Amino acid sequence: MNEIELKYGCNPNQKPSRIYMEDGSDLPVTVLNGRPGYINFLDALNGWQLVKELKEATGIPAATSFKHVSPAGAALGKPLSDVLKSIYRIDADKDLSPLACAYARARGADRMSSFGDFIALSDECDADTARLIQPEVSDGVIAPGYSDEALEILKSKKKGNYNIIKIAADYNPQKIERKEVFGVTFEQGRNDLPLTGELLGDIVTKNKALSDEAKNDMLVALITLKYTQSNSVCYVKDGQAIGIGAGQQSRIHCTRLAGSKADNWYLRQSPKVLGLPFKEGIGRADMDNAIDLYIGEFYEDILADGEWERVFTKRPEVFTDSEKKEWLAGNTGVTLGSDAFFPFGDNIERAAKSGVKYIVQPGGSIRDDQVIETCDKHDMVMCFTGVRLFHH
Question: Is 253 annotated in the active site?
């Protein structure tokens, strides 16, 4: 079929709504279950491009968790430590497929933002991955295929209405893309520039020690940024995004936002958080909300009398600023990518507070020397790619 009618557009008042192929050819997607909406398809098609490119660039299965046309998380299918299994709500003795590990990492990086997400998977969805998706609050999933068992598991979600989309893995769109805004048609060449290790050769800092693992993390950052609403920056560690800042008008605010998400990801691994005395039967979303408050500046909201009793068996001790700072000092070897140049060294100073050791960005600022000097001050390794990755 070359057209799918949608319930409505971005908002209920925006009707009629559809997706279709202007040239009359068949759509590259098939709805196997549910009734995806306008925003669902925007998330699905952007997410699919992201995971497809990650798999092509690294050879490792990939997954992403999309919300409002930007990724909340993206990751490669690397094995999970016991601590990561704990914070991602996975049984310690459970062995997972690489694709399931990728999904667990993508969903687990920023669980608050991933609530009600749309998932994209680089490979056929297997039963392991479907079982991880099943209990999460999610709008849908797109993948090049589904095993019979995985499809049955996913069809049981949302009272049988979970959105499941299959995409043709070999589909390649036209070189020119168009969209209409306020009756005016915009046209541009599709951003199909491959992001590979060849872009990482221009190391501009004194420290030039760039490991293969760090190069992989740089590729994860760059490909994630390619499909994140600009301005955007992305913190990455061990093959997964741990903090994504999207759509900020100021790059330093973007760097701070993503940095705070990266800090939260690491704080969740601290013994103080892992040992929180949750009541039996507390839902995942309530646990996530409680943890977010507990590690944040408004911790009194969850520790106040009459509040903590709702989720905890006893009142937890305050996670003090000094304790947080001491724990965060252990987060090292982080990579930071940016979709455009850093205009000031303040971005680098903020990145250093979140354990950043490696930076990848286009370069080209009139203050590049200042930015490089700040990186050298922190013994960081920085690559200039010469490639801007704005996405709107």
Answer: no
